[in-house]
């Protein structure tokens, strides 16, 4: 009887542990299925930034001051990263040591994903580097747009930002790209429902005089937010036109157009 009782206890404990693992797996799978836009908004929704963190616009774009809100795209005024004589663009990075080995692997996979499709090469920081990306777990997910000079923060919080597409999204900001819904030709492809936007957040939908480089509007871009972004009433803030049934804002990694415009911007051979 005693043997049976202990066996029953072991079975119950084992079953409970197994159930917890299954729940964790389900939660992880659910998170993976969310689009990059949904992950970013969820991660940044309850930000309480410290005094040394930047102002954010567009959900995850860092700016140095309020005066930068309406600035033209910096890629037209010198914020591209430098190309070397071998045709490659080498961008030093430093990853803070507060990430686990699993989290480091996600970040490094995102960094490496650019080398197989473009001339962009992210490499570890070396003594003497004067410009680099400092990848840190700050409050939320964010990046500056383009090269800023010296070390510039790319925040990939351990709470909600460590997904392949999210890493790619923030790195594309650092390379000089804005959100798809702020493209200069946005109104031909997306209708914005201003009345549904959280009061004070309308500037996140202002169009920018973007350099579209002859590429089409891309509903599948990893830079396109989903239709309820910044909604105050659970109604859509964006819908595709003329066909409202077109799927958009569901990307989980860079699209073909994202890669194409990256190569055009940096004049990559491949």
Kindly list the characteristics that best describe this protein.
single chain; 270 residues; alpha/beta; seven-stranded mixed beta sheet; two-stranded antiparallel ribbon; 5 helices; 28% helix; 15% strand; globular
Beta-strand percent range: 15-25%
- Over all CA atoms, what is the radius of gyration? 21 Å
Structural class: alpha/beta
User: Count the helices. How many?
Assistant: 5
Order of helices and strands: HHEEEHEEEEHEEH
**Largest beta sheet: what is the strand line-up?**
1-2-6-7-5-3-4
Number of strands: 9
Averaged pLDDT = 83
Largest sheet: 7 strands, mixed
Helical content band: 25-40%
Shape: globular
- Could you tell me how far the N terminus lies from the C terminus, measured between alpha carbons in angstroms? 72 Å
